[in-house]
Amino acid sequence: MLGFPAMDDGPRFFSVEEANDLIGALQLEFGRVAQVRSELQPLVESMGGAEVAVAILQDGAAAPPGREADAARLQRLAGEVTAAVERINALGCLVKDLEQGLVDFYSMRDDEPVFLCWQFGEPAVSHWHPLEGGFAAREPIEGVFVKPPPFVN
Q1: CA 10/CA 149 separation, integer angstroms
Q2: pLDDT-derived band at 143, boundaries 50, 70, 90
């Protein structure tokens, strides 16, 4: 089960600068997650597919015969992903989509709460969206210009 930061006093609100100060740490965490996920996919397939893997991870089902070491590796890798998400959430931001690398930061815009929005691979936080909106509702932050990288990945 994923852990989320205690919000006894409500969520942490970020300025654009404060959110951007976390980008280096977020890039490292999402880079690690991407590496672990690349190891998980073939492992899940070798175990018999997603249903078997989910049963092992969530229900404590036994590994298929002869696959006990793979099941232990599956649990370790899944734990690494969970720990990365917990570390990110502990910073006060919210992982919205692990696969796409989406992270939101609570912020204020014209006295209204909004999310600053960042996606893994972007050099900085340069977009926002309403709380009830999502990635599709992203708008550029006025006055924030992000220079594109000198090369395309």
Answers
A1: 36
A2: confident
